[in-house]
Amino acid sequence: MSTSPLYDAVLLDRDGTLVEDVPYNGDPEKVRPLPGVREALDRLRAAGLRLGVVTNQSGLARGYFTAAQMHAVHARIEELLGPFDDWQVCPHDDEDRCPCRKPAPGMVHAAARALGTDPRRCVLVGDIGRDVTAALAAGATGMLVPTPVTRPEEVAAAPHVARDLPAAVTEILRRQNALRPTTPRRDRAGTVLVVRSDSAGDVLVTGPAIRAVAAGARKVVLLCGPRGRAAADLLPGVDELIEWRLPWIDGDPQPVDPDDMGRLTDRLTRVGADEAIIFTSFHQSALPLALLLRIAGVPRISAVSDDYPGSLLDVRHRVPVGVPEPERALSLAAAAGFTLADHDQPVLRLRDDAVTDTDGGDYVVVHPGASVPARACPPQRCADIVAALTAAGHRVLVTGGPGERELTARVAAAGGEDLGGRTDLAGLAGIIAGARCLVVGNTGPAHLAAAVGTPVVSLFAPTVPYGQWGPYRVPAVRLGDAGAPCRDTRAARCPVPDHPCLAGVDPAQVVDAVRLLAPPPG
After folding, report:
1. 364-517: what CATH class?
2. Which locations, inside or outside the cell, does it occupy (predicted)?
3. Out of 28, 132, 325, 362, which could bridge 142 as a Cys pair, Cβ 3.0 to 4.6 Å?
């Protein structure tokens, strides 16, 4: 089994990914491996990763070939490409509505069990959208290697795209190696100041990296902003909190006040930190705070910086575009010499005592608001979704913050129960933890769901990349137009009239997504 902190196994689609796609092939002589596949698979084997195949083979149900013929094809594939540790085959057609045929996640779950691991520690590589959907619905990582038959909308929606299987393998190995410290620490660090100044969701996705630091430090002090304070209170591994607004990070910044910066520098000096790690998003700069930390006397500072830092940083780390934000932060922690404890996993997590009890019952949560307006599904469409879920027999709870009561009342009027403004963040975590599923945009509660293990129907506006900001390592289905004109604009307010990327979501798709992620008992 792999010693990687990230993956144990790689699952692969068969036709179009490993071998040329010959429709309904039952003839071993027609097996043709794609270029570079054998060498790529051997790289995975050498890294200690186990390999499985997950393949839809409806030709069995249609009578185009026999099971014996299919096994002969698989034997030929192994003769040419080397052994696989597991084969999962769905013999059904779409009309059978089985739980194993991709895009359903059944084969991913079965392969993970057979390989002695968890879907979250698997990556699935395939050539069409069904492969990626099955991976995400199981909580696994999905990578797309497009072919001429891959539809453009499938490429746009995929969280990670590689030109071919060898390129996908290179990225898989790069990502797992990035979480290993290049220079492991011999002794525990003393007091480490960690910084994540932004919204609740940003703080939550930094949680695994903060736990990694805590595993190798005697004391962890977290500097966060007012919008992230409630989330910071829920994180394990934090010994002390400092709340301070940083005007170069805040989305609604006030003018820089020299006196305020002086007070912040004095406060940082009193921490007496032996070192500091500044966590940022890919579009933010760590250098202004690094300057204050230098003035405060912090002797060692680590951060991600594409800009030349001069003498402001001791560890200048760089991360490729597209890496999930939790892994981006974990790779910085590793560059600074910290890694997760052996018993820990690279997943979002809350303190064991942080989640309050739920009211029980069987329900779906719809959270219509978002901290950034461009990422919120239009209220009327959210109301339509509540109506559709209610008509499908679901009890629906509608949640929102104190400033969203009017919104939640409007959405809940379609058949849900209005909980707008009735909970703090810990209370919301408890409600989400008890839900069958959460329907939400790209906002903090999506990451809260990931932290408590609740599946997410992600109404994801493509203003930022899904691969970086989608719900991390939790079963999810992405809905919305991934190729909309607002794609990658990072717009705070929708630049396209009528918000088409989310206004076009069919409520029936949401009902189907909930059924896929949380099928009824039995």
Report:
1. alpha beta
2. Cytoplasm
3. 132
Residue 512: CB partners within 8 Å, gap ≥ 6?
A: none
The answer to whether 245 touches 226, Cβ cutoff 8 Å, is yes
The arithmetic mean of pLDDT across residues 159-185, rounded, is 94
Instruction: Compute the distance between CA of residue 95 and CA of residue 110 in angstroms, rounded to an integer.
Output: 21
Query: And the tokens for 475?
Result: 């079963």
| Correct CATH for 189-336 of 3.30.70.660, 3.40.50.2000, 2.10.109.10, 3.40.50.720 | 3.40.50.2000
Please give the Cα distance from 101 to 88 (Å, whole number).
10
pTM: 0.94
pLDDT, tens only, 300-359: 999 999 999 999 999 999 999 889 999 999 999 999 999 999 999 999 999 999 887 665
Q: What is the CATH number of domain 9-179?
A: 3.40.50.1000
pLDDT of residue 94: 83
pLDDT digits (tens, 9 = 90+) for 237-290: 999 999 999 999 987 888 999 999 999 999 999 999 999 999 999 889 999 999
- Sequence-distant (6+) residues with CB within 8 A of 52 are 9, 10, 11, 12, 84, 85, 86, 87, 88, 111, 114, 115
Q: Which residues contact 522 (CB under 8 A, 6 or more apart)?
A: none
Query: The tokens 């469409």 sit on which residue?
Result: 381
- What per-residue confidence (pLDDT) applies to 217? 97
- Separation CA 161–CA 145 (nearest Å): 6
Q: Which residues are catalytic?
A: 13, 15
Asked whether the predicted pLDDT for residue 3 surpasses 60, the reply is no
Tokens representing 420 are 């707008």
**Helix 325-335 and helix 207-215: axis angle, to 10°?**
20
Q: Are 463 and 374 in contact (CB under 8 A)?
A: yes
d(CA 156, CA 145): 12
Q: What angle do CA 242, 245, 250 make, to 5 degrees?
A: 135
CA 178 to chain centre: 17
d(CA 316, CA 427): 38
